[in-house]
Design brief:
Residues 421-586 form the Helicase C-terminal domain. The protein is an alpha/beta fold and 966 residues long. The chain has 5 domains: 14-182, Endonuclease, Chain A, CATH 3.30.870; 194-375, P-loop containing nucleotide triphosphate hydrolases (Rossmann fold, 3-Layer(aba) Sandwich); 385-611, Rossmann fold (3-Layer(aba) Sandwich); 672-799; 814-965, PUA domain-like, CATH 2.30.280. It is built from 37 helices and 36 strands. The strands form 7 sheets. It has an 8-stranded mixed sheet, sandwiched between helices. It is flat, with a radius of gyration of 31 Å.
Length: 966
């Protein structure tokens, strides 16, 4: 069996494919992370395929773990630069099987072998070392465990050695000088700027892409309805300027005003419109500090110039048929308002990538709450509208060849001397590299002084860089961009071109530099919005740029939790979700983009997540107001999900109910008054029933609202006819208890004493007098109806299709103690405050096991259990104190299968926050018997039993990785 602390143990062979919560890349990383030697044999290796493994290869180098990699010149696919990069890794021995130098055979192997002691983890299948194969393509690979003496292991190793030592195989150092002059890059389709990713028709007329066509259809629909304003929300790099140009081509305005905040952006927008329209009869002009073409048909102006009174007076209020405002999230400023108030266009179009505001300004109201189209980062990546990015969160330090312990030596990256800091940055940018012939990078710094000093230090190290701040003129900025991109006067003049521009925030938004292939962040993450703006500088597609490298030098900041918040796009503000993203982002992020955090960066972000108050009144209120502004009215409960806002259950948990929250924040647009009994009922349904975990409770409430009688009979029929579920006798009793508040611990029973929804009516039940009276209030009835709809939707989307056969639980969903006991249909008043690890309930023959994984070091010895996964299908769990092989609960676990006892496993990370009371459900489990158990003595001196359980379902890769390593 594998060492539980190292190599992952797979009890059977398994399929490794790209899909939900898993991919080939993560499987290879798992193997590398746990091995003491590795072998890779693949036909094809791409720059991005190698890049995403560089963090773990660097880690292995530091631990002295070496590997052999065999590839080929087959079909001339492999770029010599990639082979050179791979060959320079200190812990890698690289050889190349030559098919064009005498061999009569092609070479198309795809195998990954990881050795740990006497055991091997072997992945063989269809995946080369390319990012598409590792993350996106439909791939089939088999992962198996095997002992060194097994026939399978011997055959795989013998086959590898045959090619490794073949007469046609060359060492990398000998092969590359021969191969490089013979290699020519294949004629692959170039990647263009997203704005240029259009279909060319017979007339060479530019046509919109899919996203742009959807926007245009919605835009035309708004105009058809005689709406006069609309908002386009479009992720950075997805081509919103071109989308606007295509829409204007349909609209055909006689005169148009395009407002921006910088002259450079006005010039870029003008060029985009000229390309789309290709109409010589239209005149175009710039109005800015340096150019003033007032009489043009289509005017592209800076806001600063157009906002001046003397400039405004040069136009009549109705001169422009359409006005477009770029980066319109700035529109709350007085200068913007002056322009908007003056002009009376037929249509006002606003465009932004980040409409969320923290200054209280209602941007959505400005555009009459008409969202023409919205596409966020995750959707854009999934639809391949953006250049893939590879993000590396970096905090590890190596100085003079020595790894520095951040915690013990009290050193942080920002506190290093200037020379050490610059060397550190250069080491990383060279190691992770870039896509394309040369680097074209942006470096975001904390302040102007830092930008200037770092630029000067880079220049001393023979880089070509410049620092830009808000103090620099437009001409200086444009010249620097031309030098960076090698365009204009600098095209072909290598000595004048720049490698990097160091800046603070002037490139956060608006400036379009598609050529950027590396973004370096050397500042604190102040908000998810700014983070995405800066990340977005590299996301535009461009020729000779297959991906962009993002290097984020993470400091010891208390708000570093914003990084996973920004990258994931998740707005539920769930700490566990953020932790899982930090640990397993590669398994989750769409497309071929990847996310990597080094060990120290993970530790820092986990610490920031642990201490952050993500259920604070401030966060909840800001999320609510942003949604309210977007809609133009008090949101309904379902709107929070529909518009991707905060998980409304956070409101339920903190404020009892949505109604109570609205009262607490004193929303002037909410004027509902309820009785204490009605508020108590809303509290009960919001927290106990609207979770959607059990559909029968919600169906019963729905029937009560509809005025039906014989509730239990009707629910039974509905469950059977529409849901294929049966209501057992215990379930019937449980349902009655739930709706009459007989299933609660004593404190909850008191809190919800008036929550009696049904009462006996002959042989069945009907609506209670107290609930019927409460429903006479239409506002209360509306709240109940919305809660029922919300709960039913959660059941259908989160639980219905994930509930395992013969269980009431959905795999990988989270439950607390009370919910587990309810779903197992334990009788009233049998919900313990703390189950203490597990509890066998004889009447229902159910046995839930609860495990806190990775307990804190300071936890008291008496409960310091060493529960641990041996593999995704095997877990060791320690019994309660003072137990032996003859203890009743231990015997029941041993004999569960023969006694028809249903055992279920629930696991949580042991984090002290508001979500820690919930456990992931990992499925049914079975004891492997007394022969695999042992009696032990705990550190406290008490006796206990270590049991081994087998899981019916292997834990999904992302959940397993998070639990084990997070």
């Amino acid at each position: 069996m594998f060492d539980s602390k190292n190599m992952i143990n797979f009890s059977t062979t398994e399929l490794i494919a790209n899909g939900e919560g898993r991919n080939v890349l993560s499987a290879i990383e798992d193997g590398l992370r746990t091995c003491d030697e590795f072998i890779i044999s693949v036909a094809f290796i791409t720059a991005d395929g190698l890049l995403v493994l560089k963090p773990i290869l660097k880690e292995l180098e530091g631990r002295g773990i070496k590997g052999r990699i065999l590839t080929t010149d087959y079909l001339g696919f492999n770029n010599p630069d990639v082979l050179d990069d791979l060959g320079h890794l200190n812990n890698i021995e690289l050889r190349v099987y030559c098919t064009s130098n005498g061999s009569k055979h092609g070479f198309h192997t795809k195998g990954y072998i990881f050795k740990q002691d006497q055991l091997y983890q072997i992945i063989v299948g269809s995946s080369n070392l390319t990012i598409n194969a590792l993350k996106k393509n439909r791939e089939w690979n088999t992962r198996a465990q095997s002992h060194k003496d097994d026939t399978y292991t011997k055959e795989v190793l013998e086959e590898f050695e045959l090619y490794w030592n073949s007469e046609f195989t060359m060492k990398y150092s000998e092969f590359l000088p021969w191969y490089r002059p013979r290699w020519e890059r294949s004629n692959r389709q170039s990647l263009q700027s997203i704005a240029e990713q259009v279909e060319l028709k017979g007339s060479l007329k530019l046509e919109p892409n899919l996203m742009q066509r959807q926007f245009i259809d919605n835009f035309n629909e708004l105009r058809y309805r005689n709406e006069t304003r609309g908002l386009l929300i479009s992720a950075t790099g997805t081509g919103k300027t071109y989308a606007a140009a295509f829409a204007m081509r349909d609209m055909k305005p006689k005169r148009l005003l395009f407002l921006v905040h910088r002259e450079q952006i006005a010039k870029q927008a003008l060029g985009s419109f000229q390309r789309v329209f290709d109409d010589k009869s239209i005149s175009y002009g710039i109005v800015s500090g340096t150019v003033k073409r007032f009489d043009a048909d289509y005017v592209f102006s800076t806001m600063q110039m157009m906002g001046r009174s003397d400039i405004l007076k040069k136009y009549n209020p109705d001169d422009f048929d359409c006005i477009i405002i770029d980066e319109v999230h700035r529109a709350g400023a007085e200068s913007y308002q002056r322009i908007i108030d003056y002009f009376k266009p037929k249509f006002l179009l606003g465009m932004t990538a980040s409409p969320e505001r923290t200054d209280g300004y209602d941007l959505y109201n400005l555009f009459h709450h008409n969202i023409v189209y919205e596409i966020r980062l995750e959707q854009a990546l999934d639809e391949d509208l953006l250049c893939p990015f590879h993000y590396f969160g970096i905090s590890d330090l190596w100085i003079d060849g020595k790894e520095i312990n951040i915690e013990e030596d009290n050193i942080s990256f920002s506190n290093l001397s200037e020379g050490e800091r610059v060397d550190k940055i250069i080491e990383k940018i060279r190691y992770f590299g870039h896509s394309g012939r040369r680097v074209k990078g942006l470096v975001f710094c904390s302040n102007k002084k830092e930008a200037k000093e770092l630029s000067a230090a880079f220049n001393l190290r023979r880089f070509r860089t410049i620092s830009l701040t808000g103090e620099d003129s437009q001409e200086i900025r444009e010249d620097a961009i031309a030098r960076l991109t090698g365009t204009g006067d600098y095209q072909g003049i290598v000595d004048e071109q720049l490698d990097y521009i160091f800046t603070v925030d002037i490139f956060n938004e608006g400036v379009d530099i598609p050529e950027v292939n590396q973004v370096i962040m050397l500042r604190q993450t102040e908000s998810p919005i700014v983070f995405i703006q800066q990340l977005g500088r590299g996301l535009r597609k461009f020729e000779d740029k297959e991906f962009v490298v993002i290097l984020d030098f993470i400091g010891n900041y208390s708000n570093s939790y914003m990084i996973p918040l920004a990258l994931s796009g998740d707005r539920s503000y769930n700490k566990d979700t953020l932790r899982k993203y930090v640990q397993s982002g590669n398994r989750i992020i769409p497309g071929t983009s990847t996310v990597h955090f080094d060990a120290i960066a993970k530790k820092r972000i986990f610490a920031a997540i642990d201490t952050a108050n993500l259920s604070s009144a401030k966060i909840i209120k800001e999320a609510y107001l942003d949604l309210k502004y977007k809609l133009g009215h008090v949101p309904r409960i379902k709107d929070f999900k529909e518009y991707g806002s905060i998980d409304i259950t956070k409101i339920f948990n903190k404020y009892k109910s949505y109604h109570h929250f609205l009262i607490q924040i004193k929303d002037k647009d909410y004027n509902v008054s309820l009785t204490p009994i009605q508020e108590q009922m809303l509290h009960y349904i919001s927290q106990k029933l609207a979770t959607g975990m059990r559909v029968r409770d919600l169906l019963a409430l729905q029937l009560l609202l509809a005025g039906k009688d014989n509730i239990i009979h009707r629910v039974t029929e509905l469950l059977h006819g529409e849901y294929g579920l049966e209501l057992s006798d215990k379930g019937r009793i449980n349902l009655i208890n739930i709706l009459s508040n007989q299933f609660s611990v004593s404190s909850a029973k008191k809190t919800f004493k008036d929550c009696i929804f049904i009462e006996a009516d002959g042989n069945d039940y009907s609506i209670s007098k107290i609930f019927k009276k409460a429903l006479e209030n239409e506002d209360f009835r509306k709240h109940i109806s919305e809660l029922i709809s919300f709960g039913l939707d959660r059941y259908h989307t989160r639980y219905k299709h994930s509930i395992l056969n013969n269980t009431p639980f959905a795999i990988y969903e989270k439950y607390n103690y009370e919910q587990v006991c309810q779903l197992l249909e334990w009788p009233q008043n049998e919900v313990p405050l703390n189950i203490g690890g597990y509890k066998y309930h004889r009447e229902t023959k159910t046995y839930p096991v609860f495990i806190n994984y990775h307990k804190d070091e300071g936890i008291q010895d008496s409960i310091k259990y060493e529960d641990r996964f041996e593999s995704p299908t095997l877990i060791k769990a320690i019994s309660k104190n003072n137990r032996s092989f003859t203890s009743d609960d231990v015997v029941s676990a041993f004999d569960a299968d023969s006694l028809d006892i249903a055992m279920h496993l629930f696991v949580r990370k042991n984090k002290d926050d508001e979500e820690s009371k919930e456990f992931y459900y990992l499925g049914p489990i079975h004891s492997t018997g007394k022969e695999n158990a042992k009696e032990i003595v705990m550190a406290s001196g008490t006796n206990a039993v270590e049991l081994e359980y087998r899981l019916d379902i292997p834990v999904r890769d992302d959940i397993y990785d998070y639990l084990i390593n997070g």
